[in-house]
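Note to self: keep these together.
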Amino acid sequence: MRGEGVKFNIRSKPEFFREVVKRVNSHFKTNNISKQGNASMVFKTIFMCGLYFIPYGFILSGLVTSVAGNIGLWALMGFGMSGIGLSVMHDANHGSYSKNKNVNSFVGLIINFVGGYHINWKIQHNVLHHTFTNIQGYDDDISKNNSLRLSPHQKHLAFHKFQIFYAPFLYSLLSLYWFLGKDIEQTIKYGKENLVQEQGISILRASIEIFFAKTLYLIIFIVLPIALSSILWWQTLLGFLLMHAICGQVLALIFQCAHVLEETDFFIPDDSGNLENSFAIHQMRTTANFANGSTFFSWFIGGLNYQIEHHLFPNICHVHYKDISKIVKATALEYDVPYNHHKTFYGALKSHFTVLNKLGVGAV
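Structure:
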């Protein structure tokens, strides 16, 4: 299994994590509130699903007859699709949406209606990314193929000097690639590493589920719109591609601005598999917040601009991140632990593309 032999340094400020956990737990106990979702989470689920499925219904109805109108509906679906990914299924597949495991499992399945597969997502995100954040060779969010250089520990190739220019295009392909090929590649890869089996599912079952999920998605979101839409098939296909381009761009930039920045660190284990920091300190050094003062932006992206709080407490629903961020920040300052933060999303974007350029030209 990937990660065997990798050891965090348990002597690296263990008191910080003990104290921040104690204070956060006290916050929930004192205020008598659940760490899981609440009524606002239910409303957000309805809103995001509506933003995705209502425009789809209009496309099928034929009530909107203009090309521009139909393309606009597909664009709305792109934002709904990203909203579902960031604000709904993300919490559900972390188990923080509800106290009821069955509710989490059911809501988490919505990822299959935006082109993904829930098991592979849990492996890549929950198991690998959250455990081995910014560790070359272990975190699949940075250790992909060599199309982009996202870590100074990654091999530098000549064409990477142009990555600041072509990265946005690749980002726009993120969810489309997810639908077309990523899940097949991951099932093979994760199966060899025994990661699929550790999710309590066989390779055969995973393959069958992926086949049926992708086929159903193809019928619902390509075949039916082409058959029933009032515009030409290739115009419908352009709308479908636009939806994915919007979703991919939103998803990629939100997560890249949390980990691939000038302030965040990148690691590689030594020859014995040892890492420099404890798990909590590692998360603080590899993660950053941004735009915490923007209420609507934070609401739409599922509180993932509070990425530090999410990585320390992935079992807590994102509706609570703003409140506990004050506790985490104060505790970090008290124990001299970094708390990376950009005041605006623009600032985080600027930092991301700055480090992307440095990595591309081989400056780091």
